[in-house]
Design a protein that fits this description.
With 327 residues, the protein is an alpha/beta fold. The protein has helices spanning 41-62, 79-96, 105-117, 153-164, 171-178, 198-209, 214-240, 255-267, 277-280, 284-296, and strands spanning 2-7, 12-19, 24-31, 69-75, 100-104, 123-127, 132-138, 141-147, 190-191, 194-195, 244-248, 271-273. Strand 11, helix 8 (255-267) and strand 12 form a beta-alpha-beta unit. The longest helix has 27 residues, at 214-240. The chain binds adenosine-5'-triphosphate.
């Protein structure tokens, strides 16, 4: 089976064809980089309008043969972007006369880690721009075991770097500067299984305004927020009795976060897997891979029921492509 994936939830216009028989996927992406400030929904939608057709054409040209289904990110994401990518996917499925598959973007971040690692039933830490949550499978759904009470982890880092005057995206710049920094303490906010980043961001901005070297602020920011994520991921492993952890989302490209999670897993004799960067940040490869699993399970959509959902939660998705419901 060959599946075309289309991704366009926020900043990344992407298309990919996954060949399930060869287990290979080629990803074609065009990033939206705001001239100043953060992601502007209207500009991001313009980016999708211009680039989704191009990346789709490149993906289809690269495929070894016709595709058997078209999968697209149904949400969560920015409404104007989702609508453009969704319209493209619907038109393609109709013109190619193949089934349409609506994929939850956050479940795709998780499933690509499960697919690439070969893990059975991992806990997943999704550390992306607009989201941060810990998921585990139970009773036919991915349950949200812990999540941010306010902003996503990547957006929080980006807000701090905007304050400093650095261009978007800020996460990689925080990582670079943190290497030369010394740890400074920031509020550590974990409540039960949930976490919060907005107070830390305000404290980081304040510390910078008060003259703390930016390298030290970046170091303190990373150590604090990543320790919070690691603590909750560890508790999720402990409470669920699982011994496999996968990482998802663009912030997962950060080497320090991966190091902390790997150390935690080693200490508790659990396995840890972080996909390669092209599968961590937003990408259509993960949409095509999960789309193929869903299509094989017959989990397809009629065009009239294929509306997008900017608040689409992972725990709303009935997991039709796994047969181990009682884990
Ligand atoms: P979501 O998947 O929740 O819709 P998103 O669309 O913003 O989020 P992602 O590609 O998953 O997209 O993540 C982008 C985020 O990753 C940005 O906030 C960016 O700053 C952050 N990021 C990228 N590289 C790094 C890094 N090396 N360290 C920390 N953060 C990073």
């Amino acid at each position: 089976m060959r599946v075309l994936g289309v991704e366009g939830t926020a900043w990344c216009a992407s298309a990919a064809v996954f060949d399930a028989d060869a287990d290979s996927v080629d990803i074609f992406s065009e990033a939206y980089e705001p001239a100043s400030g953060g992601i502007h929904p209207r500009e991001a939608a313009e980016h999708m309008r211009e680039h989704v057709p191009q990346v789709v054409e490149r993906a289809l040209d690269s495929a070894d043969g016709p595709v058997d289904a078209v999968a697209f990110s149904r949400g969560p994401g920015l409404g104007p972007c989702l609508r453009i990518a969704g319209t493209a996917a619907r038109a393609l499925a109709q013109s190619l006369d193949v089934p349409l598959v609506g994929v939850n973007h956050m479940v795709a971040h998780l499933e690509i880690g499960r697919h690439r690692s070969g893990f059975d039933s991992p806990v997943c830490l999704n550390a992306s721009g607009a989201n941060a949550h810990v998921l585990g499978y139970h009773g036919g759904r991915y349950r949200v075991l812990g999540e941010t009470m306010d902003t996503g982890i990547g957006n929080a880092l980006d807000k701090f770097t905007r304050h400093v005057g650095w261009s978007h995206p800020g996460g990689p710049k925080v990582e670079e500067h943190a290497k030369d920094g010394e740890y400074v303490e920031f509020p550590y906010v974990v409540k039960g299984m949930d976490f919060s980043f907005s107070g830390i961001m305000s404290a980081a901005k304040q510390a910078y305004d008060d003259g703390e070297p930016v390298e030290n602020v970046c170091c303190g920011l990373q150590e604090t927020t990543f320790a919070m994520l690691t603590e909750v991921a560890e508790r999720a492993l402990s409470l669920s009795g699982r011994d496999e952890l996968v990482l998802g989302g663009g912030v997962g490209q950060n080497a320090r976060l991966r190091e902390m999670l790997a150390e935690m897993c080693e200490a508790r004799d659990a396995k840890f897997y972080a996909p390669e960067p092209r599968f961590l940040r937003d990408n259509a490869g993960m949409i095509a891979v999960l789309g193929a699993k869903m299509a094989a399970a017959g989990d397809t959509l009629d065009v009239e029921d294929s509306g997008v959902d900017s608040d689409f939660r992972p725990d709303e998705v009935p997991v039709t492509w796994r047969d181990d419901e009682d884990l």
